[in-house]
């Protein structure tokens, strides 16, 4: 149990660690076309390792309860993205026309290099939204563990700041209505997440679907029903700063596990697969889109691969606007569509858990279906001729198909490992936030839940290549360089073979 003084120390310490990491990362890449997520990876892992090396913390930072709590708030940020994805799907395919949102004009006066005043408020507010919503859901579900008594205070502080925090320099058409929308969004986030957890618990005996699956279904449905909802401060904050803040917390936790995790038997080859698998699946998908889909446009590649891998970092880069306005609009659609495949993924994993091993034939069947969908998608993209609606249709199919190939193909390649280790390695190789959130939630036990922060973080060291390539693409009028992408895909494939030999 955390006493009151220690709790307040942690509250401000966590805020003053995470927000500056995001701000410094944005300052480092300011003026370039590169994403701040890369710098967040490096800073987070380094800080986590330093905390342990200097004796300020122990592996996993168990004493920093709020940091651990925020690192597990991935589902909160993603639920907002799913809602926006549902809106975009309705607008695109439901014939709904929505005028440009002019209710808020951002104040772009820089607080620090690369971050305007309103953007700074979004980042800080995202911290409070994540904390307040997650704490409230834990209170409602009674899942606070030994910290259950302190959670109501945490929920109160988080929600109050999340509601009232606003940039006075931003031009807001109707502040009362704007703040009211934020309150409604907070309430809906809490209800969706609590409802998703309740449903997941209710069907656990049938299939072990994680709460994030049901939160996706509910949030996308709400977005489809309310396509004209203009976003209030809660959704705006989560879309801009939610994933960077969550990732910063995750990488700090992951960095603290660095030395201890590397000493575990079989960890090095698994990390090797995660690292080179990320190169193979990311640049392999990009190469396929270039060679067969005949598109090297970042507006297609960035959201397409964000969805195809459910890629945490690339999703954050897209929704933050690092990959351009078109990619920003498309990313919520692309990350929502492949989640419908989780019906099969978590169904197969649930039955595999019961069987004690991966069910090979259903897994192989899903990989084959992925191949067929990918072939159809590439044909659609190739024939789109730059038309927005046609491109989006093709990318939706590609996101779904390539994800089935990468997920189920990866599980097949790792079938000789324990189920928990194969799922961890697959999640890391794709930076797959859905499987990551499921592992965080304890789907494969406490050990996997503790290790996933580190296993998931290490392949993010691939991101120098990822963001360099996308940055080069943005600098070249939105066209990704082809030959380096092919070379990186080949390097990834070779590395995966080496990793599989090491895992054998």
UniProtKB/TrEMBL annotation:
Positions of transmembrane segments: 12-29, 36-59, 65-84, 120-141, 153-170, 182-200, 206-226, 238-259, 271-292, 333-353, 359-378, 390-413, 451-470, 485-503
Keywords per UniProt: Membrane, Transmembrane, Transmembrane helix
Keyword Membrane carried by entry: yes
Keyword Membrane set for record: yes
The organism's place on the tree of life at top rank: Bacteria
UniProt name for this protein: Uncharacterized protein
Organism: Actinotalea soli
